Amino acid sequence: MNSIKPQIVLPEIDMVLVRMRRNLPIKLAHLATYDKQAALSILRDWGEGVKPLRALWDDVNRDLEKYE
């Protein structure tokens, strides 16, 4: 008896998003050395799920540009 095994198709992983998620805490810590309120606001948005990862990434990098 031949049994047909269902094939599982996994979605492709966007490595850019993986890197953003890995580096966002580091960027937030760096931002906190200059502007604690801005870092806390972005962290709160992340924790509450208010903004998608790309928007958070843009926010933290925009705020860091002010100090670099």
Give an overview in words.
By secondary structure, the protein is mainly α. It contains three helices and no strands. The chain has helices spanning 15-34, 36-48, 53-65. The radius of gyration is 18 Å and the shape is elongated. The model has no long low-confidence stretch (mean pLDDT 94).
Unreliable spans are none
Q: Rg, please?
A: 18 Å
How big a fraction of the residues is strand?
under 5%
How far apart the termini lie comes to 67 Å
Mean pLDDT value = 94
SS elements, strand count: 0
Distinct helical segment count: 3
Feature tags:
single chain, 68 residues, 68% helix
Quick overview:
The chain has 68 residues and is mainly alpha-helical. The chain has three helices and no strands. Helices cover 68% and strands 0% of the residues.
Describe the SSE topology:
Blueprint: H1 15-34, H2 36-48, H3 53-65
Helix pairs in contact: 1-2, 1-3, 2-3
